[in-house]
């Protein structure tokens, strides 16, 4: 099991979190007869004679006990009127509710497939009292359907669980994470951590990983992306540790010596692709059918795969030629330029400033290309070079005044990951 982080919750707090709380209450109460004795044949232990005052059941931030509740999901084409009209509200009232809540939440943003709840008083013939719309897995909007009308934007209680995944690469990071019982989207989180250090198109059998990560749970279900806390990734015989630390500019990842894993350029412009052709000055061109120097690295990926800028810079070309197809060229500084060829679609224009990791186009096979891929070219001082052989310095290492705090974090996290039982699922 993972290690749960955060405060403990009472039974009533747990029951507030989701619909199963009501089922649990029913089961508990059905199991007891008068005097607290179970409704079963045989001996029973009497409950203490003292009466414990039970807290009223709450849900969505209001007292939910004593209400009759209808629920469902928003159907395609449904609006607030379609949902509240049958609940006894007039068209004029629904319009007033929508208008008065617009500054906080515009009901026109409701989407098909999202859950909703409508709550009625048990003992009156009045129209519905509350309407709750789940905006996403962690947030909801609660509308008061009685004057004065209002809306409150709230969040479900969340729990953070620390979990662990260890394994050896046999196929791909996605597949091997699933094989060991970890969420496959952990691969994306790990790729973001090691984007400057590991080219995930070049993983090989025998590479290994050991990672502690956080998952957020709402109503006992995981939501969002896992967040890496500490990881040891063994790649081509090298152990590449990554420790999460915030030195005042937000969380980032560093090796055990305090060097940032973030560098000036990403290792590859396409995540989880494969190298189909390397930088080669004597390459045989498959379309031209003759030897022609290949000054780039080809990353094969399905058509439509996003292509990322490997570094910050300014777009100097966004064009088309017969050989390059649709392509983009970026100047990063006075020394470095990069180019991305054979796109199916370009997503940036000349003069536009782009950030590292920004989508600048999509994989295609325009121009002289035999299949969908991006030909990635790298210039250094005006000369095309093999970017896989270049070494780039890390950016923003741990500052001197933060080093002691960082070392304490490293010691603590290393102790956790050295414990084979910590975070085991």
How would you describe the overall organization of this protein?
The protein has 425 residues and is α+β, with helices and mostly antiparallel strands. It folds into four domains: 7-53, no CATH class; 56-157, Nuclear Transport Factor 2, Chain: A, CATH 3.10.450; 160-254, Nuclear Transport Factor 2, Chain: A; 274-389, Glucose Permease (Domain IIA), CATH 2.70.70.10. Helices cover 15% and strands 35% of the residues. It has helices at 11-16, 20-30, 80-84, 91-101, 173-179, 186-193, 403-418; strands spanning 3-5, 58-59, 62-63, 67-73, 115-121, 130-134, 139-144, 150-155, 159-168, 208-218, 221-235, 238-246, 251-254, 274-277, 284-285, 290-291, 296-300, 306-308, 313-321, 325-331, 336-346, 353-354, 359-363, 373-380, 383-385. Strands 14, 17, 18, 19, 20, 21, 22, 23, 24 and 25 form a ten-stranded antiparallel sheet that branches. The longest helix is centred in the C-terminal third of the chain and has 16 residues, at 403-418. It is globular and about 80 Å long. The model is unreliable at 4-50 (pLDDT under 50).
């Amino acid at each position: 099991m993972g290690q749960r982080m955060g405060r403990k919750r009472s039974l009533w707090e747990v029951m507030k979190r989701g619909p199963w709380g009501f089922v649990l209450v029913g089961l508990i109460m059905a199991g007891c007869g008068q005097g607290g004795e179970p409704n079963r044949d045989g001996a029973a232990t009497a409950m203490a004679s003292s009466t414990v005052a039970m807290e009223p059941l709450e849900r969505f931030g209001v007292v939910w006990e004593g209400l009759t509740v209808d629920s469902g999901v928003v159907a395609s084409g449904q609006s607030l009127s379609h949902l509240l009209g049958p609940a006894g509200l007039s068209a004029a009232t629904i319009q007033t509710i929508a208008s008065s809540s617009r500054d906080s939440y515009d009901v026109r943003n409701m989407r098909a497939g999202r859950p909703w709840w409508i709550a009625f008083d048990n003992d009156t013939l009045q129209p519905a009292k509350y309407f709750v719309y789940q905006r996403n897995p962690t947030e909801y909007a609660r509308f008061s359907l009685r004057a004065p009308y209002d809306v409150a934007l709230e969040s479900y209680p969340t729990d953070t669980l620390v979990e662990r995944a260890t394994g050896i690469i046999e196929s791909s990071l996605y597949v091997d994470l699933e094989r060991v019982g970890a969420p496959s989207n952990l691969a994306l989180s790990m790729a973001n951590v090691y984007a400057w250090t590991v080219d995930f198109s070049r993983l090989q059998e025998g590479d290994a990983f050991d990672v502690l990560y956080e998952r957020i749970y709402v109503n006992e279900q995981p939501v969002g992306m896992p967040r890496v806390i500490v990881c040891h990734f063994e790649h081509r015989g090298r152990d590449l540790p990554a420790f999460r630390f915030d030195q005042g500019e937000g969380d980032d990842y560093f090796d055990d010596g305090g060097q940032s894993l973030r560098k000036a350029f990403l290792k590859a412009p396409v995540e989880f692709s494969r190298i189909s052709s390397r930088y080669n000055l004597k390459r045989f061109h498959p379309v031209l059918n003759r030897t022609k120097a290949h000054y780039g690295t080809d990353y094969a990926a399905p058509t439509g795969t996003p292509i990322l800028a490997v570094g910050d810079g300014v777009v100097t070309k966004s064009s088309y030629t017969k050989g390059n197809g649709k392509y983009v060229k970026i100047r990063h500084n006075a020394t470095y330029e990069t180019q991305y060829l054979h796109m199916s679609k370009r997503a940036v224009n000349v003069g536009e400033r782009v950030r590292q990791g920004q989508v600048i186009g999509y994989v295609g096979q325009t121009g002289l290309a035999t299949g969908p891929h991006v030909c990635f070219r790298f210039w250094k001082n005006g000369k095309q070079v093999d970017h896989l052989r270049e070494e780039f310095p890390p950016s923003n290492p741990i500052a001197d005044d933060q080093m002691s705090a960082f070392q304490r974090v490293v010691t603590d996290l290393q102790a956790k990951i050295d414990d084979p039982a910590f975070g085991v699922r």
